[in-house]
Amino acid sequence: MSTFVVFDLEFTSWPGALEHDWGGPGQLREIVQIGALRLSADCSVVEEYEALVTPTVNARLSPYFTELTGISQEIVDEEGVPAPQALGEFLGFCRGQTVLSYGNDMVVLGENVGWARARGEDIKNSFLDAAFVNIRPWLNAVAPVTAQSNVGRLWSALGLPKPAAGQEHSALFDCHSFAAALSHLRGQGAALPEGCL
């Protein structure tokens, strides 16, 4: 069966960080949550992956991040795993797949892999064993109503039922929103860009 992966990341943030491209002192885009779905050719969910990740440089989450995502310091302290472990597991989940993001999350993933390796940490799988693609330009062209929407609001922008329990800025919920949008657009006759399956 032909499958592909959609994924989303939540990473450390502060007020104004987006507008300044995380340019403030010490503002690194450290991954705190990874969500991913393996989808079949008809966009049905085959498998889920989710991990909470303990940030290394900014070990204390900002109140802004917690308010945005609902992820508390206590949850990360109790359930978070070290970055190399989460990154390795996620890259293993993606091995041999086309991996779609709604935006440049693969850049943030690459930054985090690079930082871990620079610290001498071992990551069990390679970034190069999957084909990462930012599908946002295609999706916005096919459905212009989505152009101003983040990934967690795609379902709403397209007038679809809420795809899962949870809220936007939760990585796995955002993946379900993404998958619902892809399924809807395929049902409307849109073909995914060549090489996605």
Would you write up a description of this structure?
This protein is of the alpha/beta class and 197 residues long. The protein has a domain at 3-133: Nucleotidyltransferase, domain 5 (2-Layer Sandwich), CATH 3.30.420. It is 35% helix and 20% strand. The chain contains 7 helices and 6 strands, in the order E-E-E-H-H-E-H-E-H-E-H-H-H. The protein is globular.
Strand order of the largest sheet: 4-3-2-1-5-6
- In CATH terms, what is the architecture of the domain at 3-133? 2-Layer Sandwich
The outline comes out as globular
Rg, alpha carbons = 16 Å
The CATH class designation of the domain at 3-133 is Alpha Beta
- Given as residue ranges, the uncertain stretches (5+ residues, pLDDT < 50) are none
**Secondary-structure element pattern, one letter each:** EEEHHEHEHEHHH
Q: Tell me the distance between the termini.
A: 10 Å
Class by SSE composition: alpha/beta
Roughly what is the average pLDDT, rounded to an integer?
94
Name given to the CATH homologous superfamily of the domain at 3-133: Ribonuclease H-like superfamily/Ribonuclease H
The CATH topology of the domain at 3-133 turns out to be Nucleotidyltransferase, domain 5
Instruction: Report the sheet with the most strands, covering strand number, pairing sense and barrel closure.
Output: 6 strands, mixed
Roughly what fraction of the amino acids lie in strands? 15-25%
Helical element count?
A: 7
Number of strands: 6
Percent helix, as a range, is 25-40%
Quaternary assembly: single chain
Summarize the structure.
This protein is 35% helix and 20% strand.
